[in-house]
Amino acid sequence: MSIDVAQFHQVFFEESFEGLEVMESGLVGLEVGRPDIEAINAIFRAAHSIKGGGGTFGFTAISDFTHVLETLLDEMRSGAREVTREAVDVLLLAVDSLRSMLDAARSGTAFDAQAVAEVHHKLEEQLHHGATAAPVPGAASDSAAAAPASEAPAAGRWVIGFTPELHLFTTGNDPVRLLRELDRLGSMQAEIDFERLPDFAQFDPETCYAAWRITLDGSVEEAAIREVFEWVEDDARITLTREEPPVSASAAAPSLVPPVAERREGERRQADRRQGDRREAEGGGATASSIRVDISKVDSLINLVGELVITQSMLGQFDDDSQPINFAKLREGLAQLERNTRELQESVMRIRMLPISFSFNRFPRLVRDLCGKLGKQVDLRIVGEQTELDKTVLEKIGDPLVHLVRNALDHGIEKPEVREAAGKPPQGTLSLAARHEGGNIVIEIGDDGAGINTEVLLAKARERGIVGPDETPSEEAIRDLIFHPGFSTAKELSDVSGRGVGMDVVRRNINELGGAIELESTVGVGTTIRIRLPLTLAILDGQLVRVGDQTYIVPLVSIVESLQATPDRVKSVTGSAELYRLRGEYLPVIRLYELFGIPPQTTALEQGLLVVVEGEGRRASIFVDELLGQQQVVIKSLETNYRKVDGISGATILGDGTVAMIIDAGGVIALARKHQAHRVDEHPQAA
User: Fold this and answer.
1) How many CB atoms lie within 10 A of CB 424?
2) 70 an active-site residue?
3) pTM here?
4) What are the pLDDT digits (tens) for 351-399?
5) Quick check: helix, strand or coil at residue 197?
6) Active site residue: 48, 67, 411, 484, which one?
7) Quick one: which of 78, 319, 400, 538 has the fewest CB in 10 Å?
């Protein structure tokens, strides 16, 4: 019977991907020719952990690939090899390969073996390039690979005593992996000692009763052997003894490891299949997701649950019908319950909060690679990377941010010679900043590049028929054209940007998250794009409005202002459309009672209110009977519980138990336009 190690895979993958982030950020920060030993040590440790975990869980391809990567890093940290740009480039490619291999292992699919082999070959080329740097005083060296060839250890025999603690299996360690690693160092023989094996009645299949006496012949350093046992040094008794070389190495018995390893590999595959079957049976094959939580957040949650128990006990006293009700004490208990519930809600939401650094950490590498491709010099500045937001929002904002950063590098920041001709420093500046503002998070992407030339934008828009020849849009409206589907001013297509797709998708994705995007730009000075997002998608701040006898909720993030309508500002146009003039801008008037088929309380605009909303880059005024108040609401998905409804983003349950629909500002505006177009088609004579 073997332990089902597949239950530990999720933790291994999470820790490995975190290790890759450490490696990537560390490599990007390395200065060529000036090795930072601490940084290289951190990169090495991350690689070593991935290698060890890969071997433990039977992901031999990952372990073997990381071994070469680790050797190169070890030579760098020992000072035997210089840090060159070429070596860092190859190591970054290796990080990409490891990421693809881990993704494939997690999903149970095959990785691109040819691409991985090409990077592996590049790593080998770097290793064979020669280690000519002088050793750095005090630099670490834990393997034989770090030693110059002239100081290679003499051939000899090591006798190793390996007696694991009985609980070794419960730590996720497998002695077979250790024996496999030793077998790679030299010619190995292993004798198994079963002296601790109990009678069958006392046998526990999850206890390690075996011990090993191992002989290892070859030119092997002690440090290399101790590195193999590094994972279990606290869970085993290990002895090392050096002996003279054997008379005849050819008489050595064949290693027992391969057949054992093959058997273990078969057991691992069976365990993976069982685990996959179990996941499919339990969740329809859905990918498991987890989140790391700071222990202080868990402690806070536990304390609040304790407070709730106390409050429940206090309110339970009023269940006795024989005693008169002390209303003052009842009100006190209800107030305490409200306070506990609010704090519990906030604590639960904080558990899902992660720092935006999880998204920002990818950009140093992205900027480095694109600068090399575009021939530009850019200083990336990151501010507020510890600002927290909901895990779901964090996952969905990643791709839009990548596109905006690529655009800033490609279209915004100029090449060094162009900047110098304009009186700017050759190195441009790209900034990423995040901060909390009210109940939202604000993310800014700024550059000191060429800015957006509105004259070029307008000429291109007129050329494509997006703007009429007689129209004179405002500067803001012209800049907003970059979010028009398929619009681009790029003269040449590239694999970086300029294919006319992307910015409209960026806006749509941000709007789907309940956010908004703003753009500021000055020619020759630079551009700033500002994104406002809710901290969480589960709860929103909303304005309750009444239309007839129905209550709706308009997200506060969508509301520009609310006002009392005056009849002299209303203008009717073709097809009976209504426009309201507000500070020189004409806004469509959307009557919700018409759109949703609700009996209205009044149809006169002056007897109701107009709520000005913005969605998907458009503004409109929604006619409602009354504003009821503001409150936080928990969003319930309509698609999950019913079906998708145009103009509605979800629903919530109010305090009185009634259901209120949550208005999707962009969806309502689009629905009103469609409704108006349909009316014109039905009554063409009105046009």
Assistant:
1) 19
2) yes
3) 0.61
4) 878 888 888 988 998 898 899 889 999 999 999 988 888 888 888 888 8
5) coil
6) 48
7) 319
